[in-house]
Amino acid sequence: MRANLIDPLLLLHNGRVANAAGDSLLLEFSSAVDAVRCANAVQKDMAVRNESTPPDQQIWYRMGINVGDVISEGDDLLGNGVNVAARLESIADPGGICLSRSVHEQIVGKFDLPLENLGEVDVKNLSRPVETFRIVTERRSTAAQARRAQRANKRGPRRVWMAAAEVIAVLGIYFWLDRLTVDFEPAATEAMALPLPERPSVVVLPFANLSNDPDQAVLADGITEDLITDLSKLSGLFVIGRNTSFAFRGQDVPISKVAEELGVRYVLTGSVRRSGGQIRITAQFLDALNGKSIWAERFDGAVSDVFATQDAFTLKVVEALSIELSNSETEQIRRQETDKLAAREAFQRGWELYSRFDEEANVQSVVHFEKAIELDPE
What we know:
Largest sheet: 8 strands, mixed
Strand order of the largest sheet: 1-2-10-9-3-6-8-7
Shape: globular
Structural class: alpha/beta
Number of strands: 16
Oligomer: single chain
């Protein structure tokens, strides 16, 4: 799809690929006008292609465009500009495009496109509502038709995020194309090494470190371990332990094979990208028996909010599996070992060494444990 659709339109509208990973693309444009023209062209082209495509093979994009501040990490972007764009994407219908007021101000009068003012829209993870405009597309890509296509589409809607940043005197418009949810080959119960437990069974695979700094892997490992620990506290779940889970670290093993080897139904996986005080965490909760994503979430924000994000992911697992929590279990999830990230990272470095179970590594781990206690005596 990228070679046949995205790349040619990108070239035509003065854009470039800033980053690419799997099904994700980060694209940069020289102006807001170019970005909107490209987005509209993509949607029109996809609508035409979908007319001659069986419903279960159709692809629909949701797009959100924003102009705002971002933080650059190499070619990647973090920060509130991306976060607002992500929320605009969530407002858009499959096949639709939503714009922030800042984008609207730059394109008004320059397009013969019908725009609908949705007013100030409250969106999650943002303290203030976002004034939102929607491009009213042609009938073939109306919201109603797109929703029907979404229900019929086994793969679900693709997601497009757009953000923008003003760097020196140059305006850069970016959009993030990402398909968080993905279908995969289901696991076979008869191929499982162990019978499925009566309780819902979960494995949390090590979150991938997508930061440019390999040393940030300690943060990804800490998030993974905290999720394993929090889920293990719940009596309604069967959770695979840390040592078994981390045996898959760095391996590209199909979800179905992981489930079959461990005898579990559900798999929680994700990634972490950090740049200074900003962080992006993604997570997907997958049902290995039907090859579907139950939910997929992305968090963009301050590193200091990482613990609250972990809690949110844990509670989403609980909600998805309809698990009843006791008051004590709810309290345990929200009770953190520390609220100081530096102390948590120091502990994680020590724990990584300690978990090797050899004399030299044990000695080395003490330095990091003592540092953790120094940073947070409690």
